[in-house]
Amino acid sequence: MDSRLVGQPRPRAEDQRLVRGQGRYTDDVNLPGQAYGAFVRSTHAHAIIRGIDIEAAAQAPGVIAVLRGQDYLDDGLRGMDHIPNPADAIAFKERAFQHSLTGSIFNQRHLPLVVDRVRHVGEPVVLVVARSMREARDACEMVQIDYEPLPAVVDAVQAMEDGAPQLWDGAPRNLCFQARVGDEAAVREAFARAHCVVRREFRNSRVVNCQMEPRSALGSFDASSGEYLLISGSQGVTRQQMCIADALGISPAKLRVVSPDVGGGFGPRSCVNPDQLAVLWAARRVGQPVKWTSDRNEAFLSDYQGRDQVIRAAIAFDAQGRILGIDNEIIGNIGAHTVSYVPLANGSRIMTTVYHVPAATALLSAVLTNTPPTGPYRGAGRPEATHVMERMLDIAADEMGMDRIELRRRNLIQPAQMPYRSPMGLTYDSGSFAANMERALVVSQWSEAEQRKRDARARGKLLGTGLANYVESPVGAPRERIEITIGTDGSVDFVVGTQSTGQGHETSFVQVLADELGVPFEAVTMRTGDSRFVKVGGGSHSDRSMRLVGHLLVQAGERLRSTALSAAASMWGLQVQDLCYEDGRVRDQAGQHVAGLGEIAAHIGREGMPGNPEERRFFAEAEFNGRIAAHPTGTAVCELEIDPETGDVEIVRYTSIDDVGRPINPLIVEGQVHGGLAQGIGQAFFEDYHVDPESGQIFSGSYMDYGVARAGAIPRRFDVELTEDRTHGNALGVKGGGESGITPATAAIFNALADALSGITREELPMPATPAAIWSAIQRAQGVQP
Amino acid sequence: MSRVELRVNGVATSREVDDRTLLVELLRGELGLTGTHVGCDTSQCGACTVKLDGAAVKSCTVLAAQASGGEVLTVEGLSTPQQLGEVPAAFVACHGLQCGFCTPGMMMAIDYYLDTDGSLDDERIHRALEGNICRCTGYVNIIEAVKHAARARAEAGKPVGRQHG
């Protein structure tokens, strides 16, 4: 249909309530008669619970109940199955990992409260329910837990070693699984004839999600109907409903999950947290609704975290600098519970990124440690893979004495190679990888960087430039559904199973559907976030929302237009071919008749749908289950200056060339790029979930100790350009924009850091590259022990 | 218990509260003004920022009793049902928000900046936003919104940077 709205940088509809303070986040919601919950959390990283004394707490003012994990088991309930092994990127009906070199793939159910052994600091042990939040928190102080501390291990590499403390029976050497992917024999052969092999180890740091809305959950139970209600922010209600209903042993129909406005997602909120289950159980126990809201300290101890991979990389090159093969080992720190293996699945699938690599293999290890569980965090394995690939190319260029851009030019997949099947099995249907890089070089004025370096040196600064190419993989939950109903007043209501956590679906989805139907933007209303009407849907993650929903909106739009024509034909006693659909109206060629969608809906209300008289709603649905090819891609260039006296860094210029396919709302897409970059800057320079290696105690449990990017950290100059090499994989040509900013960010930044320091040191900087780390590397290179 | 008397968004209110009640708890709980958010417990994130007697304060770090006798402006007071205020309108126009959780506090800090400084200089804006964390926008469009709002205020003939709080 015509594009009046699609492609327009339209300000968002949802903003009207959000900027008035009328957003409705979970903690803003209250139920009559609600009680308040507060958790007693483990103070040990690893310990046996010898006993829990709740006497004093139970007697404390206002306390209604003090609940332990054993009480939960005594109620005949079981823990949550996170289904950590995701749907495969290609064979979506199968799991990503089928085999483990350890014999089996470990998966442990996750109880809402620990029963006998805590496995990370912050794990919930006791839930106190009281009349007020303050009374609940006060009573938590009175709970006495007798711990017998055990040795803890927080580092994934150490956890795999012989003699390391073991977290779970059933996972020897703390391995959830170990898998070999790719073609090991071909890689061995490639390495045997290599001119040059480059090897490095990279440690991708652990980050905390830090969405601004602290998690909150409000549970209630209606004893007369046996129905539960959970109000809690998430990245999609369906998964929450399925997972929690399974743990409670009830039919999903007996659990309604509502996610109202959600204050940031970024990945981990796709998964279910123990506290969400705990409030529901507690509500049934005490016979009144129970509300819990995390404080920020609790968030640092209990939100699912991200990254934390060690990647040992090896690339073999021929004498011309062409890649012959890649052999990586990826060790993922899973934390104390088996929440998600997504980052390992994504990271290995995409590890050859935009380059032609004849042979590739990876050894993947998912390792349990005494740390909070990790989950998918924005990019989920792809930024880690991109970081390694792009750092390796800069290192290899340096070792081979080649220009780092020229090395990339020799290895980029060319348009003539499309569709391109990567050695890890992904098929790229489109992507102008070389053109994106060349454009980034132009926009960033790469060729004049040498002059800027000299200028910076004259000011006592070290200027560096870094480039990173990236591509993403179209994964995530494969199934999505929409339902559209048109009212007799012409209003268009549609229900969808994705969940905006800030991406503006009430605007971008409506732009698509309003265009499809030729109706004004204001005629369309989107509904989501309530399992009472969302029956199927995968939530929002992995760039899946517009990719899948856009496709379905086009399909459903076609059906509605076709229905409108048939209904109008029957209404007027004419043939469909004598009618046309235009601007939300059906008219006949002769100009005798015209009907809007509301009139057609009224006719269907009386006569039924054409061919289906029982259906009296003007209605269409569309559902998809599978994979839609879409590989967002692009190039980032970072230019920064280091003050060698202090190690302080300023990003002076940042260029981002992003092919998101067809941008539905460029304002929103660019906002996604900005936000992704800020998270990348955060990880590169500040964010460090620092855990004491001996005790497992957390040194960074607040915003005072854990650095996230603030306004002063953003680049002095930031150029974002959207290019478009439209995919044919879906009706709208959408690839996705949610992860384009973050995927190349740390790679471009670390390449720029290495370039700036190249005259002084070739030491690989740790992540985050704090001023202290940079300054120390400079000192060491100059023979001074910092 | 303490008796707290406040004018909130121009409306006089009086409440009897527990001594340790924070200003933000009074606003969100007793008064139902849930636009002001709590994002941390160390005065770092600024989601709870409101104006108290014209100065931006973090309402998670002020006791309700301390604020008694004062004049409070919250996000709900920045706009009327008919019209968005300059700062909220600028946030919409510049796509200065995504999830919207930090936005109320961010806008109150900016409103104060426009009262007391209002310069379009990036470094001054960065400093003004130092106490407010946003995890979604990367700040780029928030900074644009500050400039947009400053211009809108000046065009509307309202004072920018003259009031010193």
From TrEMBL, chain B:
A Pfam match? Fer2
InterPro entries documented for this protein? 2Fe-2S-bd, 2Fe-2S-bd_dom_sf, 2Fe-2S_ferredoxin-like_sf, 2Fe-2S_ferredoxin-type, Beta-grasp_dom_sf, Diverse_Oxidoreductases
Q: Which UniProt keywords apply?
A: 2Fe-2S, Iron, Iron-sulfur, Metal-binding, Oxidoreductase
Q: Does the keyword Metal-binding apply?
A: yes
Q: Where is the 2Fe-2S ferredoxin-type domain?
A: 2-78
Superkingdom per UniProt: Bacteria
Coiled-coil blocks? none
For this entry, the protein name equals: (2Fe-2S)-binding protein
